[in-house]
């Protein structure tokens, strides 16, 4: 009985872990995964998204983020002996030689396409005063992107040394870092390349071998939904980054887009690759589930009436419709019964004429699981003029509150006080004269 109860509780917990919005059992054998809308950051599916795991070479997208924000692509960087050698046992590399000089642009291509460990070290040592300063900035930028549970101790993702025992990230954090990286056109251009065949000659290399992208899904299209006989129900993988070590297992961050322009980011961590059940197979499963069950949905359309109000001091009855000045769309389940959107309406109170058509009088903000997914202004649907009495009152108020009126009032008050004082003084003076004359009579 106890065993059955424990099993039931574990099943319930697992069901809630799979997805915050659309619960469906996905056949993904991984330590953690997440599927995120690249535009808003809304989560479509998740399992153990905040578990701290070894990120391996997916770390390099955080390295690239620092380089893109702080570096100059034309900057020439020099490889140190330590940068070239500190790549781990059997670590990915392209054979850069100590003292070799490459531009940041070339290093970024080798970093993200060939996953070369030494390029991460070279970038770190040259972009700041040293690798330690670079790592401080890298962790800071990751946190600013929303990665709250990550700790990066090196720029390439090696995890076999004691000094890197605290090198961890999460599926959610990596998705958020990837989302930030995708705002850079240079990043998109690099991760979209299947081949690395553009490295420039250096002081140590006259030419470089052509290297393939470690992303085996790059550029491939996959079907989802009903077969329409065309490519309407297809998504294409556009990037992103692989990573694998003995401790981490196989990791993969992928970006994909369908014909409607819906871009998703998937992160799968801790896969023990087996035939037919690799990290790439599971990525296809996760992305297909997203595109099958989610789409761009209209939450609210433009010119929808939000509220009817009465405007004070109006020339007519003052009846006014407050309408939306735009529309809000978001990636949501196709089944509207699964929508869990929070709506916050803010409207200005005690409206008084005049009100011009299109005046912003409030807004509606929409959130999904704490993530902002859209906001639209609320505006007046027509112009409402003031009544004549209100206009007169407003004119009087305006006139009496003007600086000239205040100055004139003060001046007039001073003049009046002067004449009153003058009259009082004259009266006092006459009384004195009268009293003096009366004394002389005696």
Automatic annotation (TrEMBL):
Domain annotation Peptidase S11 D-Ala-D-Ala carboxypeptidase A C-terminal: ranges: 294-386
Organism: Ruminiclostridium cellobioparum subsp. termitidis CT1112
The UniProt record lists the keyword Electron transport: no
Pathway per the UniProt entry: Cell wall biogenesis; peptidoglycan biosynthesis
Name the record gives this protein: serine-type D-Ala-D-Ala carboxypeptidase
Reaction(s) this enzyme catalyzes, per UniProt: Preferential cleavage: (Ac)2-L-Lys-D-Ala-|-D-Ala. Also transpeptidation of peptidyl-alanyl moieties that are N-acyl substituents of D-alanine
Biological process, per Gene Ontology: cell wall organization; peptidoglycan biosynthetic process; proteolysis; regulation of cell shape
Keyword vocabulary terms for this entry: Carboxypeptidase, Cell shape, Cell wall biogenesis/degradation, Hydrolase, Membrane, Peptidoglycan synthesis, Protease, Signal, Transmembrane, Transmembrane helix
